[in-house]
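Entry, Tuesday afternoon. Goal for today is a structural model of the target with zinc ion bound, before we commit to ordering more compound. Inputs were pasted exactly as handed over by J.K., no edits. I checked the ligand SMILES twice against the vendor sheet because last time a stereocentre got dropped in transcription.
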Amino acid sequence: MNNKILLTFDVEEFDVPVEYEQKIDLEKQIEISTIGLQNVLALIEKHDVKCTFFTTAIFALEQTELMKIIARTHEIASHGYEHSSFKNSDLKKSKETLEALLDVKIFGYRMARLAPVDDSEIENSGYAYNSSMNPTWIPGRYNHFFKQRTPFQTGNVWNIPTSVTPVFRIPLFWLSFKQFPMWVLKKMMLRTFEHDGYLSLYFHPWEFTDIKTFNLPTYISKYSGEKMLQRLEETILLLKNEGDFITMNEFVNNQKNNI
Ligand SMILES: [Zn+2]
């Protein structure tokens, strides 16, 4: 069996400036994400790779036609109702909203900012999998350094952590793509890929829009727009030689069939 690549995007209103006390209205937040999303779509279409898009219900309500087009080829999963707030009832509400709006079945959930979420609530809300855990230590955010770094089941819910390197657990997530030189990232991705047999990567569409005009920390805005598109393309080209791009739900079904 070939190694698998789970390339995923968290489609959300661009609320990062709000975290840094800058005002940005919802219309602008949606616009920034939409530009990046269209850039991402052009790239993944060019390379014919299948991805998973975790979207907030708010974004899908604002960009319904675009999300419907994406749903024809890729998996749509839930990234909550809105990005900046959460209550348990949003789990079910976002799933039902997306299913009715886009006429698809929603299997997966990812929590905004990978905040902790109760797996029993995920299961009760009708999801098959949860991809909300980065099994490493991110100072000031979370510490999952000693949690399992590969897929595991809690009740009937499959947990698919995002990829970190073996041993040192360097996260292969969006921020690392702005900190490390590409040759280091490539080495870490291949090492993890060989070790685990799959890679679970995640980005946000707004990273693929030029956001340098916002007053954000350079570790967030240094690589955006064209520079990030180049990095994503290099990643796709590297991994395309090594395995198959599949959706997260396809991967979960493979896990089920393997036990
Ligand atoms: Zn998010």
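The radius of gyration is 17 Å.
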